[in-house]
Amino acid sequence: MKRLIECVPNFSEGRDLAKVDAIVDAMSGIPDVWVLDRTSVADHNRSVVTLVGEPEAVAQLRSWRG
Question: Taking a C-beta distance cutoff of 8 angstroms, is the pair 34, 52 a contact?
């Protein structure tokens, strides 16, 4: 059975959706990582992404700088 980790990163960008799209595309481009949801709120300039993946794959996000 595969182990999965849920990760819910948030970041200070909710107005420039092209930037948010680029971040989410990079996250979903990692093998064995699946983006389940994303929300951006322009008034608060925040975005939240919910993703799951195998532990080794999710660990790649820690060092990702885009």
Answer: yes
Secondary structure tally for the chain: helices H, strands E: 2, 4
Residues across the chain: 66
Which uninterrupted H or E stretch holds 37? strand 33-41
What whole-number distance in Å separates Cα of residue 8 and Cα of residue 48? 7
Q: What is the pTM of this model?
A: 0.84
Do 1 and 13 contact (CB within 8 A), yes or no?
no
CB 20 within 8 A of CB 38: yes
Residue 66 has pLDDT above 60, yes or no: no
* Spatial separation of the C-alpha atoms in residues 23 and 46, rounded to whole Å: 13
Cα–Cα distance measured from residue 35 to residue 51, given in angstroms and rounded to the nearest whole number: 4
